[in-house]
Amino acid sequence: MRTMQLRVLALLLCCGVMGPLARQLPAQNTSSVQTGPMPDARFYPLRFNHILYLYNNDVQAGITDPSYSSLDRYYVHRLGATVQETTTFLAEAQSWSAEVAPIDAQAHSIVAAIRALNPGGKLAPGAQPPAPPQTLADLQQQRDAITLKHVANLRAAFGDVRFTQLDDQARRVAHLTSRGSALAGAAGHSNPMSNPGGSQ
């Protein structure tokens, strides 16, 4: 049962929902964990938030020429997407964000209430983290279902072959970027793909 509770907290932290409370969990032995491709329900929130991050930066910078935009540099030049494919992906990300926003807001409220039970939102030395309420697990399932629905929409829009090509390339670029960010982080730089500008 405790393993399931820790897994729920870890999944919510991955999507940026749990925040500091989840980071107070004790380190777990992961030597037996099998690695593999990140599931769509975990990977695509990162992708959706990333394209929204780039788009919002372009808007704030007043960039209107697509050839100078962050979207064009990343999605067209690095991922090999067409301008139309990038536009389709952005629209899907915006729709996804609007759907998960109320779910994330509810999760944040629950987590804030749990943290309020501890002074400064921190556990006392030696204290065990509270068991996550079932409501958080239910919210995560709702969020995952919404994410997978939008992934299916992209697959339908691009076709199976083209979707797989873009997905594979995005995963390769994300993997290389995350490896490089470990070095860049020491120099004070951040990687928007691993920490997108959105709150989801």
- Helix-strand sequence: HHHHHHH
Number of helices: 7
As a whole number of angstroms, the C-alpha radius of gyration is 18 Å
The helix fraction, in percent, is 55-70%
Largest sheet: none
Dominant shape: elongated
Q: Gap between N and C termini, in Å?
A: 27 Å
- Which class do the helix and strand fractions yield? mainly alpha
> What is the number of strand segments?
0
Beta-strand residue percentage:
under 5%
Mean of all residue-level pLDDT scores = 76
- Low-pLDDT parts are 1-34, 180-200
Compact summary:
With 200 residues, the protein is mostly helical. Helices cover 66% and strands 0% of the residues. The longest helix has 33 residues, at 83-115.
Which descriptors would you attach to this protein?
200 residues; 7 helices; elongated; disordered N terminus
Question: What would your notes on this structure say?
Answer:
The structure is a single chain. The chain has a domain at 38-123 and 131-183. The radius of gyration is 18 Å and the shape is elongated. The chain is mostly helical and 200 residues long. The chain contains seven helices and no strands. Helix content is 66%, strand content 0%. Helix 3 (40-61) crosses helix 6.
Set out the fold topology:
Layout: H1 2-14, H2 20-23, H3 40-61, H4 70-78, H5 83-115, H6 134-158, H7 160-186
